[in-house]
Amino acid sequence: MNLVSDTVGWLLDPTNWGGNQGILTRLLEHAAFSGISLGIALAIAIPAGIWIGHTGRFIGFAANLANLGRALPSLAVIGLVLPITAAIDPQLGFKVYPTLVAMVVLAIPPILVNTQAGVAGVDRDLVEAARAMGMTDRQIVRRAELPLAIAPILAGLRSAAVQVVATATLGAFFGGGGLGRFLVEGIAQQDDGMTFGGVVLVALLSLSVEAAFVVLQRLIRSPGLARMDVRSAATSTA
Q1: pLDDT at residue 224 tops 80
Q2: Which residues make Cβ contacts (< 8 Å) with residue 238, sequence separation at least 6?
């Protein structure tokens, strides 16, 4: 019970929430770091997944690349990247960039695979009908394939986001910020309240991200609306 009471006491202590090293500051650092990593992964994986799914090219290569990304442990990626980034920038190259690269590598596979599968899984008859009505490939992707593939794309993004939030704690072991600092400092100071308080905060943030995506997935437009969009687009191009 001492561990539980220490953790609750640390979390409820107002002095732990303010200041440059308080919970709110670390939470914002963690969220910002995770958001940047996810944004970079999105910028790479979404266009690639759309192109592969739409054209049907390099599907096997993309699947193998995604499996490789899943198989690589984040610490191994950090270890591989750290000597290079540290040589380029002794400060951020040690504290920030290696963990950032590791999180991007972690986030790309689920987004890429789900985007490709979602676009490729759109009814081909619908796609051919849209093409026969005079829609360009770009119009087909924007007005037919993407609306119908949004559910699997969001599922991939949801998986990537939760993994990134959890993995961002590793950055603290290399001097970075975020909620992982409470784990590192708690262990160093033998402060169980701080250590497990940090664990609870990371878990709560991960669950909050998961819940947000669950709500978002329920609010997305239905496939029927995408079909209506295709018909309306075809009418406008006729």
Answers
A1: no
A2: 133, 134
DSSP per-residue letters across 27-49: HHHHHHHHHHHHHHHHHHHHHHH
Q: 61 is written with which tokens?
A: 């290569």
Share the mean pLDDT of the chain: 86
pTM over 0.90, yes/no? no
Q: Which amino acid, 143? A: R
pLDDT at 59: 84
pLDDT at 238: 46
Map out the domains of the chain as residue ranges: 2-7+24-237
Q: Does domain 2-7+24-237 have CATH number 1.10.3720.10?
A: yes
pLDDT of residue 72: 81
Residues 204, 90: Cα–Cα separation, whole Å: 33
Residues 6+ apart with CB under 8 A from 86: 93, 94, 98
- CA 145 – CA 127 distance, rounded (Å): 8
User: Taking the CB of residue 71, how many other CB atoms lie within 10 A of it?
Assistant: 9
Q: Which amino acid is at 54?
A: H
CB of 189 closer than 8 Å to CB of 182: no
**For the chain, percent of residues with pLDDT exceeding 70:** 92
In whole angstroms, give the CA distance from residue 168 to residue 101.
11
Do 33 and 177 touch, CB atoms closer than 8 A? Answer: yes
